[in-house]
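Input chain follows. Return structure tokens only.
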Amino acid sequence: MTVATIILAAGASRRMGRAKPLLPWGGQTLLGWELDELMRSCVDDIVVVLGARAEAVRRELGDGARYCVFNARWPQGRATSLAAGARALGEGGRPAPEAVLVVNVDQPTRAGIVDALVTELRASGADAVQPSYRGARGHPVVLRGALLAELANASEAAQGLRGVLAAHPPQLLTMDSEPVVRLDLDTPDTLDAARRLLGVSEEPAERTRGARGG
């Protein structure tokens, strides 16, 4: 099963007070760490959707900037970034993915969680799979590639990803041993606990990213 990922990283990070993709995370940036985790997983293709502070993020990623696309409409809402990422996956001669993983940059995840969700999607025949932790829905969500066109037409009026999932209710995969699926890095006071949970340190990000594989 070919798997593509859309990372939504376009927001202004107003409540955090600094760009979330550039947060120090295990000796690099949060976005760099997330890319590394995805490359350790079953994911085959990645699109990172940027908006606010796009050039600063590109510079910090170095060679990883090749995954990035810019969404000029980012101030109009997250749905515009989801649509931009989905459209990018359908362009440039990319092979059509059989599954699409949607990741918010402020909701970091592990490679093992991604692999478990994709395995469940493949085995279940569901249109979408979403993790749950102690009865609460979590993230990320993986959807059938057949829904890529619906993601590309996502809008704020139709509630973005939430609207797509309302039309295609996800199968829940219980992950009661993985509180990571409930992480949401909205404000500075959430960072220390999240780093501990993921086993990363708060070290200064490297100023220059080396050549990144993938």
